[in-house]
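Input record (one chain):
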Amino acid sequence: MADSPLDLSAHPELARYSRQVYFAGVGVEGQRRLRLSSVTLVGCGALGSALADQLVRAGLGHLQIVDRDFVELDNLQRQRLFDEQDVRECLPKAEAAARKLRRINSGCEVDAVVADANPRNIERFCSEADLLLDGTDNLESRYLINDVAVKTDKPWVYGACVAADGLVLAVRPQASPCLRCIWPDPPGPGELPTCDTAGILGATVNIVAALQAGEAMKILMGREEELLRGLTSIDAWHGRVRTVNVQAALEHGTCSCCQERDFEFLAGKRAAATTSLCGRNAVQIMPADDTELDLRRIAGRIPAHMRPACNGFLLKFQAGVLNVALFVDGRAIVQGTTDASAAKNAYAKYVGH
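The corresponding structure, as predicted from the sequence alone:
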């Protein structure tokens, strides 16, 4: 005969999470610890939106979402927090996600940060977090998260997917291998498939995000002994899951990050001023210094035939065959090219920075 469910009459604040609290791995204490936890999520695209949705529904206390992009129609196939209204309003992903999540669970504090996480700001974004989550779509950002996590001794959960394949790794600095223990350097351009070349299944995204969310919850609830013991790979199409023990990479390696304390990505030594965006035929341009633009003033000098449209979060306009989205922090996403020079030329001509 099954044990009777816990009596939650003494814990009315946990009633909405009752089915989760009944699970032995969580319990009342685990749920309370989750409610007191703070997470910084970097990236709110496919993986990030699924992660945010699961953790807010699970009862996380505070979530900060950092994302540089805005919602577009082809996001809706796999990015579960967004809808067609967000596309029409051209909302930044962080803001659109935060609005939805606050309606899902008003007990979770959700902060939207419309910015690119880079060496100049990522330590500030992560300073109050108990754990960092990877919802990004590029290796440079993941190595940057790894640097700040190791430097500040914060756990983080890596996740990646392309086509039907995915990877998940929970990193606990000094206790388990970091990203650079396993891959000392990111692969070069063209060495790995991307969603441009191989596509992406929405099912793959959700499996990877579910495993990431589970690992994050274990850490926040103090159940590290239950973590997956290594690097987990997923083949969603054929239903294969495998976890490889990578502990030797920490114990017998000479990691430049967690052992030599050389944070190259955080120091900006390997940061790109321009970034090609996965699956977008687009280039992101970063300003040289921190800035705050008056988007409405800039919109006023863009010719009408270029269709300038400003919503307070970003300014969009057409520059010939290029579509430019300019953000308050001076970033721009230039769509219609993968040529960094062409993107920078359009930025210089119309923004003037």
